[in-house]
From TrEMBL:
Recorded superkingdom: Eukaryota
Any single GO CC term annotated in Swiss-Prot or TrEMBL for this entry: extracellular region
Binding site for heme b: H208
Chain residues that bind Ca(2+) 1: D87, V90, G92, D94, S96, E105
UniProt EC number: 1.11.1.7
Family, as annotated: Belongs to the peroxidase family. Ascorbate peroxidase subfamily.
Protein purpose: Removal of H(2)O(2), oxidation of toxic reductants, biosynthesis and degradation of lignin, suberization, auxin catabolism, response to environmental stresses such as wounding, pathogen attack and oxidative stress. These functions might be dependent on each isozyme/isoform in each plant tissue.
Keyword Flavoprotein part of the UniProt annotation: no
Record-level Gene Ontology MF annotations: heme binding; lactoperoxidase activity; metal ion binding
Protein name: Peroxidase
Residues engaged in binding Ca(2+) 2: T209, D257, T260, D265
CDD domains in UniProt: secretory_peroxidase
Catalytic residues identified in the record: H86 (proton acceptor)
């Protein structure tokens, strides 16, 4: 009798095991972030188990789609990470950047080079088929940014879920996202408004270890005379000349990390030590006394960068989230508010 029960239990276990394995993303680095996620009030309502019952396959769906797209075009990984940042920087992580109507954030000049909207639409369509009216676009974008990071060679982190989608998106507010011409004081101020500190600023800027920039974002560095009409001394002269050659048109692209453009590593920081930062905001992190010690620490400690990047990305994903029954909605189509 006892033997029979053992067999039944063993059989049930084997039935369930492959199932639960399929629900976890295939590629993950289980290194745990060192500190707890931010404790901003609204973010307290987020939970990694939020969709455990209502949409258990969510993360597997997101992972499969992001994986397939990146296989075809690896440049989509940095674009999705940036899209998530631009979402969270304006009205919090509420998918306001995805709304596609006249005068929305997405239509603003500052959003011109944002990409990845079609990937999010494709994930949303699949998620709606499997779990109708359950998962927000803000959560999908957050999970996609996490998976894009892993697939680019970055760290894994658990994504807390439960964000609602906002109903407001204003193009004028898209200009709140830093464009690369700011000084450090204003960057610190912008991040502070989001509940992010100087460590988050320097660590999250490390996302520029992959991806690219349009030449229009750095054009001002080509004509950067200071008081004595000498060139900007904070950029390596050979690097500057090479950028000029690559930037015949403002619509051309250049890599954000000149040494290892497709590898998620600390070269972004070691570049800054060699005056090889692309954006002037990148390079300024190494000349301002409030941020330069952090740049040097991250440049020499890869493990510190990956573990803190995971922590700071969770904080970014928690910025001013809409939670609870009364706030926001679960959009049916990420491009439009529900009617
Ligand atoms: C600290 C302030 C920041 C500034 C001033 C800034 C500025 C920029 C600029 C100007 C570009 C190039 C846009 C273009 O002309 O095509 C860019 C690209 C990018 N940014 Fe940032 N950014 C900042 C923070 C962040 C953060 C916090 C993240 C994510 C955690 C991020 C992720 C990216 C990525 C991955 C790209 C490459 C996008 C692609 O290849 O499509 N940035 N950023
Ligand atoms: C930084 O930029 C802001 C906004 O453009 C400006 O008001 C401020 O004076 C600048 N600060 C420094 C130290 O240059
Ligand atoms: C301009 O650059 C020169 C050479 O790098 C430097 O010595 C000088 O202090 C700078 N002047 C100003 C006003 O920043
Ligand atoms: C996971 O992260 C740790 C620490 O960042 C790193 O040492 C390890 O190689 C990573 N493993 C994988 C499979 O990426």
């Amino acid at each position: 009798m006892r033997l029979w029960w053992c067999c039944v239990i063993a059989f049930v276990l084997t039935l369930h095991l492959p199932n639960s394995a399929a629900q976890t993303p295939r590629i993950r680095n289980k290194t745990k972030p060192r500190t707890a996620p931010t404790t901003r009030p609204a973010a307290d309502h987020l939970s990694t188990a939020y969709y455990a019952k209502s949409c258990p396959n969510l993360e597997a769906i997101v992972n499969r789609k992001v994986n397939a797209w990146i296989k075809r075009d690896s440049t989509i990984a940095p674009s999705i990470i940036r899209l998530h940042f631009h979402d969270c920087a304006v009205r919090g992580c509420d998918a306001s950047v995805l709304l596609n109507h006249r005068g929305s954030e997405r239509s603003a000049h500052a959003s011109k080079t944002l990409r990845g909207f079609t990937l999010i639409d494709e994930i949303k369509a699949e998620v709606e088929r499997r779990c109708p009216r359950t998962v927000s676009c803000a959560d999908i974008l957050t999970a996609a940014a996490r998976d894009a990071t892993i697939l680019a060679g970055g760290p894994f982190w658990e994504v807390p879920f439960g964000r609602k989608d906002g109903r407001v998106s204003l193009g004028t507010e898209a200009n709140l996202v830093p464009q690369g011409h700011e000084n450090i004081t204003s960057l610190i101020g912008l991040f502070q408004k989001l509940g992010l500190n100087i460590v988050d600023l320097v660590v999250l800027s490390g996302a520029h270890t992959i991806g690219r920039s349009s030449c229009s974002s750095i054009q001002q560095r080509f004509s950067n005379f200071n008081g004595t009409r000498k060139f900007d001394p904070s950029i390596d002269i050979n690097y500057l000349n090479s950028l000029k050659r690559q930037c015949k048109l403002g619509t051309n692209f250049v890599n954000l990390d000149v040494t290892t453009p497709r590898t998620f590593d600390v070269a972004y920081y070691t570049n800054l030590e060699k005056k090889l930062g692309l954006l002037s905001t990148d390079q300024l992190l190494h000349s301002d006394s409030r941020t330069s010690p952090l740049v040097d620490a991250l440049a020499s400690q890869a493990q510190l960068f990956t573990s803190q990047f995971a922590v700071s990305m969770v904080k970014l994903g928690n910025v001013r989230v809409l939670t609870g029954k009364m706030q926001g909605e679960i959009r049916r189509n990420c491009n439009f508010v529900n009617s």
